[in-house]
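User: For my dataset I need records formatted as: sequence, then structure tokens, nothing else. Please produce one.
Assistant:
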Amino acid sequence: MLSADILLQVLWTSVANASYQAVLAVAFALVLKVMQVWNFTQPALMGVAFYCMYVLISGLGVPVLAAVLLTLIPVVAMAVGIERFAFQTLRDRQSETLSFFIFSLIFAEFVVFLLTLIFTTAPTFMLPNMMSPIHIVGGVVVSEWDLIAISLSALIILTLWLFMRFTRHGQYLIAVANNPDLAEVYGISKTRCYQITMAIAGAMVVGATYLAGTKLAFFPELPVHLMVFSVAATILGGIGNVFAAGIAAIFISVLQQGSVLVFEARWQPLIVFGILFAVILFFPKGVRWKARRLSRGPAPVPAPSKAA
């Protein structure tokens, strides 16, 4: 029989490992909600974020905090550039949804492939020392990385929630997500909102990539695997429920990590793909939940015509 300590250890480890995955899922869901685009360029942003921090920290000896802040510049600029020069161009041409999908997927593969040519295809560690001090709390092994990852991820997601709920530009994003044409009638620029959305998503990717990079070795397939995880969490949480995607990410992680109690560890990735297949087959428009206040926030207040 499994002891309570083992179950608590699996639960704690699952939640800690799900922290950065929840951030990625929320960033993915945010772009989908506001821009109506499945942002499969996310692996490209992750790759650029990782190698920027890798060069700054391991190559140039830049302090970690400064490296993360400096990495925000190219990644956010890249995210906004994707919206400005790619997605907006496709919109202007009234391209089909498939065009967005094909572009974003090919762009991500191109950037990841280019990064592997510049650096290496072998697993790469962001920090010279990946070990994290551990503590025993009530029979559960708790590492300092666990505490940092959970705290930072919660802070990132909470900051986004406060921004969406209490700031003018956050309300603009909600208005554009609900009805972009009507929002423009009230003077809200959907173009600017799209760029702000991609900038926020890029910044969140940097935070999540830092956490993942200080825990795992980076290899070309990792960003793609994490994107698949984000897609599964977004659909399971209900398309349009931005923050529910984060909760779904934690649920999937607990289910995936807990599977080691029943199956061999090599079967874990199939859990994510199994959930993704199930929701696509049975919920092609996404899982619908009755309560969706978490992502909607209060009703948007019409902006004056000079706004945006």
